[in-house]
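cron nightly-structures :: item 1 of 1
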Amino acid sequence: MNVLIVSQCSKKAREQSCQILDQFAERKGDGCWQTMITQQGLDTLRRLLRKSARRNTAVACHWVKKSGQTELLWIVGNLRRFNVHGSVPTNRTSRDILRSKHESGWRSIESIAVLTAIAGLFHDFGKAGALFQKGLKNASARGYQPFRHEWLSVRLFQALVGQQTDEQWLARLGELKPADEKTLLAQLYKDTQERTESPFISLPPMAQVVAWLILSHHRLPQYLRKDAPPGFEQDNWLTAQLNANWNSCNHLKDGWSARDFKDVWRFPEGTPLQSSTWREKARQLAKRAAHAVSVYEFGSWIRFSPYIWRVCRSCSPIIFTLRRCLSLRGRMRLMPPGRTPIGQRGSSSRSWMSTILASRIMRFY
């Protein structure tokens, strides 16, 4: 049979393989031989090459058919120097040329991971309030506060963002210092019984998503006053109609003193900005967001999709998944050691899969 032998050996392995191949075939190039040989002679050649093979040995044998086509017969040595057909690469690089990791079928996975984690950083800020802390110490006459802790958390996040764009507040997130808490509290919007407005008015698109996750991590907003609820036909429901009355009506009850409304917005022990652990986690998330192009694309998509906030107030698949990840991750973190995770005790496969999704997305949270 007519065979073509290609050698990709290097160093001492090249010298040894050339000595053997020169005895069986005529050299056609620096690393190429061709000859007519019997099957028995070919087996002998292969046996000798395998016997003297080193780490840098790589020899491929092709059968040249009458039609001119070739068929790979065998490879001796390092298989990585040839492809499955025995061809030799024209160039090598360690760079990801195909960018296969960017070809995920779920384009929003990085946005979900980053935005959910950022919401997780801020979702319990309101528990640092003086009135909430009194309730934990049984020093409060009531078991609740005028404004729920998630509403306070949204206001604190709103104060952090201010009038900045998404790029600006994400950059600032990675540079926060304990001294920034004073500026944060100075810009805090404080709701009262008579005055309340939507915290989403001045927020850019991505900040709106984070604020929505913070506000709804326990329950979705619903109109709790006794009068007729407003309609949802307008696209600006989020910025024009959503206020404290959609989260809780505790502030409308009688018996609250002026000191209670003052304490609910007072943080005597400071906020998590004083924690170096919290600031380091914020720095990591800001760095990850800066390198995630999909996060900014996600914000642009939200800007041109106002119906997301109007239709069922969270039934968009992406927003629903964000809330699901945040709430499930919170439950998993609070679960006592040794307790069976959600979804393993006879619940639906959908809940179990959502739990797995939350755990994988939020591993860094």
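cron nightly-structures :: done
The radius of gyration is 33 Å.
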